[in-house]
Design brief:
Elements: H1 11-20, E1 32-37, E2 42-47, H2 61-80, E3 83-89, E4 98-107, H3 112-120, H4 140-150, E5 154-157, H5 161-180, H6 182-190, E6 192-193, E7 203-204, H7 225-228, E8 243-248, H8 253-272, E9 276-279, H9 287-296, E10 302-310, H10 323-326, E11 327-329
Parallel strand pairs: 1-11, 6-7
Antiparallel strand pairs: 1-2, 2-4, 3-4, 5-8, 8-10, 9-10
Helix pairs in contact: 1-2, 2-3, 2-8, 3-8, 4-8, 5-6
Bound molecules: flavin mononucleotide (FMN).
Amino acid sequence: MMSDLRAAPCHASAYLARAAVTAPSPYNTQPWTFVAEDEDRGIEVHVDGARRLPLNDPSGREMVISCGAALLNIRLAMRHLGFNPVVEHFPRPPDPSFLARVTWGAYQPPTPEDERLFGALRRRHTAHGPFLAEPLPPSLTDDLREHARRARATLDFLTDRAGRRHLAELVRIAEDVRRSRPEYAAEQRRWTWWPGEPRCDGIPADADVTHPDVTDFPGRDYAGLTRMFPTPSQRRPARTGPVAILSTDRDDPAAWLRAGEALQRILLEAADHGVMAAFHTQPLEVPSLRVRIRQTLSGGAFPQMIFRLGYPALVQPLPRRPLAEVLRVAGAGLA
Ligand SMILES: Cc1cc2nc3c(=O)[nH]c(=O)nc-3n(C[C@H](O)[C@H](O)[C@H](O)COP(=O)(O)O)c2cc1C
């Protein structure tokens, strides 16, 4: 599908948008709109505020991170086609929802690295639950740290046991709030569906087939398993995998966008090795817990994402909204 450049009137923008929408987003909300500028001169990335999670993400931070990941995908798709992307961040400052414009720069054949990352776009998926016992390639965590640094973000792996335990405890506190408060449960229900429902966004309740408390880091309870089954006594700490915090030196929409680009770069590099991420961002959605993580675990930098890495036993590709819903042509309606 991605190779059919004649599929739509703004066919180059359609190609870029198809790559963009493979990005991750909380609850698979897909909070983005793309605009094809005159005759494919460029593509705009806008955040779609109607898809914000009012309780979990009141500031829209996670929405902008998701759009940052989509922006990196657009850059990679342009490189795949042999052009250098020219990116303008926040091109119209009075409009904070207009996050970026990407236009076509000089022709330069894609490098093997460009092709490797572009190839990983469709292989990357979010993991849930325990990983396989296999260790990660020895240099991978160092490489990922370096990719984060080049993207002007910081990736810290929690190597000491006390730090890991502390973070696991904060994830537990935040997740307990989500499970016990009806308003959080309602927000989650809005974005969770059962197999058979005709949805192109949100998460199927059976995305995580294991009990969400089976590793040291509690997962979101999409299927309500914790209400039906007690917490397993036999946890699988060895299958939790390395745990990392991605952070930035500032905490504004520009930093969130940058964090999203860094995140996607890291996820694609890992996916190229068959390694996937399981996310545990619950405590970053509770201001007091986010402050504690900043003060005790991320060296004063602003924590933007928390994830574990490993080889998943199973991943489930999730649906995406059709292009006609997310791509507009400048001055007209949806493509
Ligand atoms: C900012 C952000 C926060 C996320 N937080 C979580 C999380 O706490 N738990 C989780 O299971 N997935 C989390 N995810 C991953 C999404 O659930 C996932 O991207 C979405 O369901 C689409 O699936 P895919 O990544 O496999 O394409 C997060 C993603 C983003 C971008």
